[in-house]
Specification:
By secondary structure, the protein is of the alpha/beta class. It has helices at about 20-30, 35-40, 45-60, 85-90, 110-120, 135-140, 145-155, 240-255, and strands at about 15-20, 65, 75, 95-105, 160-170, 200-205, 210-215, 220-225. An eight-stranded mixed β-sheet has the order 1-8-7-6-5-4-3-2, with helices on both faces.
């Protein structure tokens, strides 16, 4: 990583939690939310990731997970002792926060499913190609999902609650050039959000999480770290990111046996190009 990766990062607003808090979230969700409700979270859309991450950073478990057509996640934020709710929710002084989770459409999840089917048949899976974009391009690609989530929150929520959109982007659909940078919030421009949206979380899976607060009119980077001098990160499986480690813990502790397209490892390799090169 070069020093250039932090150019312009001075002044970036950051909220950090410890590894212990994230570990707590993976245990608290299965302990307090009915198992049948958790198993209905849509893995392909990253709803389980949204539940885990919002629980960790808000410091409370959801009081409702959508199983009957309501909003995806409901938090009784009056129970939260966080002093950063205006950054996380775009509102202060509300009793509840309603989250609607949307993933940016892409081809990888269908490719992933097709590859699994091919392997079961004993065939070689095809190749998935992606083009690198900027982090701002990822947010721009989410506009249709933001509008859809805003309409659902308008229909299902109410103005006395914080109304929050949670966007999930899969790296293999929209790989972003800032992926190796420790901070990316300072590279993002102000998004265009419907008036009824108070905040927007964006998870650039598998490693970056940011939130835009309408009331503060700024991006905040959400980090995971240790506050101890000798603190070390948990060991992760080869080729995986730290948040994928916690995703695996959550899936295991919640008894969710489905296949998550966000739970994967990477390794270096070579692939012959399908085009002629001069």
């Amino acid at each position: 990583m070069s020093d250039d990766s932090l150019d312009g990062a001075i002044g970036t607003h950051v909220i950090a939690i410890t590894y212990e808090v994230m570990d707590w979230a993976t245990e608290a969700l299965p302990a307090h939310v009915p198992a049948d409700d958790l198993k209905k979270l849509k893995l392909a859309s990253g709803e389980h990731l949204a539940a885990m991450l919002t629980t960790a950073y808000l410091g409370i478990v959801p009081v409702a997970v959508d199983v009957h057509g309501g909003v995806d996640l409901v938090y009784h934020v009056a129970d939260s002792d966080s002093d950063a709710l205006s950054s996380l929710l775009g509102r202060n002084g509300v009793e509840f926060a309603d989250f609607e989770v949307k993933s940016i459409p892409g081809d990888f999840r269908e490719h992933d499913a097709a590859a699994s089917r091919a392997l079961k048949r004993g065939e070689e899976p095809g190749t998935h190609w992606s083009k690198f974009v900027s982090a701002n391009d990822v947010v721009e690609a989410a506009q249709s999902m933001i509008a859809k989530a805003a309409k659902q929150l308008w229909d299902k929520s109410s103005p006395d609650r914080a109304r929050v959109v949670f966007i999930v982007s899969h790296f293999f659909d929209l790989p972003y050039v800032e992926c190796l940078n420790p901070l990316i919030a300072h590279t993002l421009t102000a998004p265009t959000l419907p008036d009824e949206i108070d905040a927007m979380w964006v998870f650039f899976a598998p490693s970056h999480l940011v939130v835009w607060s309408a009331v503060e009119q700024r991006w905040t980077q959400l980090l995971l770290s240790s506050f101890k001098e000798d603190g070390t990160a948990p060991e992760v499986d080869f080729g995986m990111e730290l948040l994928q480690h916690y995703e695996g813990l959550f899936l295991e502790r919640a008894g969710i046996n489905g296949s998550s397209p966000f739970y994967y490892g990477l390794e270096a390799g070579e692939h012959a190009p399908t085009y002629d090169a001069e």
